[in-house]
Amino acid sequence: MNRIELDYSFITDFIPEEELFRYQPQIDSLHRTLHAKTGAGSDFLGWLDLPGNITDDELKRIEDTAGRIRKSAEAFIVIGIGGSYLGARAVIEALSHSFAGQTAEKPKIYYAGQNMSGKYLSDLLDVIRDKNCAVNVISKSGTTTEPALALRLIGETLAKKYGRQNMKDYLYATTDAAKGALRKMADKEGLTTFVISDDVGGRFSVLTPVGLLPVAAAGISVRELVRGAADMMHFLNETDLKKNPAYLYAVIRHALYSKGKAIEILSNFEPGLHYISEWWKQLYGESEGKQHKALFTASVDFSTDLHSMGQWIQDGVRNIFETFLWVKKHPSGTTVPKTDDDSDGFNFLAGKTFDYVNERAYEGVRLAHKEGQVPNMTLLIPELNAYYLGQLIYFFEKACAVSGYLLGINPFDQPGVEQYKSNMFALLDKKGYEEQTKKITDMRGELKTKKV
Ligand code: PA5
Questions:
Q1: Quick check: is 418 catalytic?
Q2: Which pLDDT does position 408 carry in this prediction?
């Protein structure tokens, strides 16, 4: 099979190859732990075999529902946050027209429930009010504040427009099989629902209906996405670091972290990959950032950010390394035009494709960054399509699990995100948070506000 490859040629100047391959026994053992499901967080390993377990019937049900949405809706609103929306958005934005909002293609896709900005939501209502709408609300717990509040607002608006009794014609819910407020509401209203199984955590759920329904509603082949993930799953069922690029990626990250690198930057040269980076940041940041450990995951979009963060990457604190995403084949063929007077001096590029120029920029940047003491590696993606994105998703998921185990943490929980929630609920006077409210009130009393 054609597949994503890891080019680590520019790592070995910083870490000798033997040092990387010395991880082999540890990787063998972690591979066994992962596949025997005996490690930390093993209740959440449903994603590991998932691409091979999705049935034709499940895909068909997703495609049929997506077909209904595509037929009826001018606006399709995906409500969810974190793992319940980033994967879908990543795939949709990578594979859609760069100006999907301005083309005639229907439905237009909007996202809600990923923030609590009143301006964002009222602007969204302005845009969707006069359009035929369909909504997919996605929440595994069914109780997350941001999507719950967005659903209230959008649900209210659509109920006024279509009648509450017709909710099942425009609202689709993806949630737990039995638990949570969203499940209760969906059952009560007779909505079409899709289930997120208990053993798949949010940020590993893009290949469940969480990601697949929105992706299909955007007109993208979920069969190709799943096929790519399944091929990568089989390919990565191998412990040898010389044959398993996901394990090697995990090892390189860990080796660099152990040598004091604190930040991994994911750099792309394709604007459409912006949300792939957002999804990746969440996957690694939320999985690994525990017990005061782990790399901080950052991202840049090149060549745009070469004119902003490029300076810092080239010359700032040397506590970073970089992983490039490079797409090898481009269909566009758009070329640089020739001008009569060559006033800008760029006629030497006339007739060359923009992608050729972009590729020289990528090569120049990886060399420059290596010389600037930034270890870097590249994930070579043969082409930007659903099949290779499926490969990429599974690649990052598997590498993340092993990378987390190398750190000695549980990559499948997220205890830290509860802290802000309990403070927020206490400050909002939610019932049950009285003790926290008192603690915060006392803290505020003791705190001398300093303002200038
Ligand atoms: O990866 C995770 O577990 C989180 O990012 C969740 O997906 C996110 O908090 C949304 O949770 P829920 O789907 O329960 O609304």
A1: no
A2: 97
